[in-house]
Write a structure and sequence with these properties.
This protein is mainly α and 332 residues long. Bound molecules: iron/sulfur cluster. The site of iron/sulfur cluster has 14 residues, from α12, α13 and α14.
């Protein structure tokens, strides 16, 4: 049984796509034997940028879909704890405690927030979005996570979490675990239109896409825009199809594609059908497992219910230790 705990998570976006697989799921499948794994489905975080009734109504189905795809990708339910963030009310109290351990100017300096506000088309920063890194700290610390796998862009968030923990422990006593960041090279795959692969851009290749859908999506993918005719040489460095080859194709074949593209010996149609065949083969076992899991409809529901129970036990112990250290609520 692993002795250290890892915490990571996602917003409830629904079906996982190949960008998720390369960027995080593959890594999680490898790490699950080394660390006790907590996977949070961050529905409260989602509210910072998407809070319409329609968005919220999609959360339950999206959460189930994410768990289903994670299990099909190789996460083992006995090793992992999946839970919905809003199922654990303790997070709100620890978040309130933490809000008083950080200043507004410190939050305003967080590099990712302005970008998030811009992406969500918010002209003015909502209070919840400004406090998003504090809620994230609350999520990490509440489950006493020893480490959090992050891409370089998330390092400032972990640093803020560590500052908050140090501040708390200095003020009230050493009860909270200071998490470490483990930087992973998070590959960001382009979608079919060349922008970052994302469900919201409608450019994703889902892990659950049937083979013919994968092939159809890849056949319509954008390529080097300067390569107008078959006999024009191409530049693989600007081609999204090539970026996917880098993620799924062996090195020796990548070198051949690179050379073939630059000399125009290889056409885009053949290059794409090579990629389609690789994705179909790579994800066929995933799709078999997914079909198998779907034969027992309660599996995913049980994973979420068990996960919430396990997560809540850890969360209430941490919150109680924090209250005791602070002397909070002794009059109750
Ligand atoms: S041959 Fe392949 S890498 Fe080159 S432009 Fe076409 S799709 Fe892209």
């Amino acid at each position: 049984m692993p002795t250290k705990r890892m915490l990571t998570g996602d917003r409830p976006t629904g079906k996982l796509h190949v960008g998720h697989y390369v960027g995080s799921i593959k890594n999680r499948v490898e790490l699950q034997h080394e660390y006790e794994s907590f996977f949070i489905i961050a529905d409260l975080h989602m509210l910072t940028t998407k809070n319409s009734k329609e968005d919220i109504a999609e959360v339950p189905a999206n959460a189930r879909m994410m768990v289903l795809d994670s299990l099909a990708a190789g996460i083992e339910p006995e090793l992992a704890t999946f839970y919905l963030q809003s199922a654990i009310p303790e997070v709100c109290e620890i978040n309130t405690i933490f809000q008083n351990l950080v200043t507004v100017p410190r939050l305003e300096r967080m590099p990712s927030l302005k970008e998030m506000a811009r992406d969500a088309k918010k002209e003015e920063m909502p209070y919840g979005l400004l406090g998003y890194p504090v809620l994230q700290a609350a999520d990490i610390v509440l489950y006493a996570a020893d480490f959090v796998p992050v891409g370089e862009d998330q390092l400032p968030h972990i640093e803020l979490t560590r500052e908050i923990v140090r501040r708390f422990n200095q003020l009230y006593g050493p009860v909270l675990v200071e998490p470490a960041a483990r930087t992973t090279r998070i590959a960001r795959l382009p979608g079919t239109d060349g922008r970052k692969m994302s469900k919201s851009y409608g450019n994703a290749i889902d892990l659950a896409d049937p083979p013919e859908t994968m092939t159809a999506k890849i056949s319509k993918m954008m390529t080097d825009p300067a390569r107008a005719r078959r006999y024009d040489p191409g530049n693989p460095d600007v081609c999204p199809v090539f970026a996917l080859h880098r993620a799924f194709t062996p090195e020796a074949r990548i070198a051949e594609i690179d050379a073939g593209c630059r000399s125009a010996a290889l056409g885009c149609v053949d290059c794409k059908s090579d990629l389609s065949a690789r994705l179909r083969d790579r994800f066929a076992p995933f799709q078999d497992r997914r079909r198998e899991i779907l034969k027992s409809p309660d599996v995913v529901r049980d994973v979420l219910a068990d996960g919430a129970k396990r997560a809540r036990a850890v969360a209430s112990a941490t919150l109680e230790a924090a209250r005791q250290a602070m002397g909070l609520g002794h009059a109750r």
